[in-house]
Amino acid sequence: MQFGRTYEEFEVGAVYKHWPGKTVTEYDDHLFCLLTMNHHPLHMDSNYAERTTDFRKNVVVGNYIYSLLLGMSVPDVSGKAIANLEVESLKHVAPIFHGDTIYGETTVLDKTPSRSKNDRGIVYVETKGYKQDGTLVCVFRRKVMVPTKTYIKERGGEQPGRPEFDQPSSKNVEKQP
């Protein structure tokens, strides 16, 4: 499985469809709200949502959807990133409810070599999130600093921090009774 791309592997106009999708549960929504101290009753209190909102049910907190889509894009976009530099825009277009499934895709809008270091570049992308019925729910644009092939090679290859383990041969393994 590919995990990110080098600068040379990005092409302007390329679209990466992230897989798999994620069905959002009430637990996911409540845990995210609790972890981030977002206690708005629209997300946490079904009685409140049923009685006082236009939706008549809890709405999943938007920053969870953004975070989910960002995470979905890592294997295709930023798995090799040196840094996420900027989130230029973030739009929540339609609500998500418990039980909805989110799918994402990212389009490469532009890429520019770094002006200060020749072993990296900046990739400008737009990620869109959709519900299972095709409704656009979230759009964001960001800039990511990614390495060139030279950067990867000079630092020990694709997984320089991964330890190598000696695999015991079958004749050296003691048999358990």
What do these coordinates show?
With 177 residues, this protein is an alpha+beta fold. It has five helices and five strands. The longest helix has 17 residues, at 62-78. It starts with 14 loop residues before the first strand and ends in a 23-residue tail after the last helix. 23% of the residues are buried.
Percent in helix: 25-40%
Biggest β-sheet description: 5 strands, antiparallel
The helix-and-strand class reads alpha+beta
What do the pLDDT scores average to? 91
- Rounded to the nearest angstrom, the radius of gyration is 21 Å
Number of helices: 5
Task: Give the number of DSSP strands.
Answer: 5
Share in β-strands: 25-35%
Distance between the termini: 38 Å
Numbering strands along the chain, what is their spatial order in the largest sheet? 1-3-4-5-2
List low-pLDDT spans: none
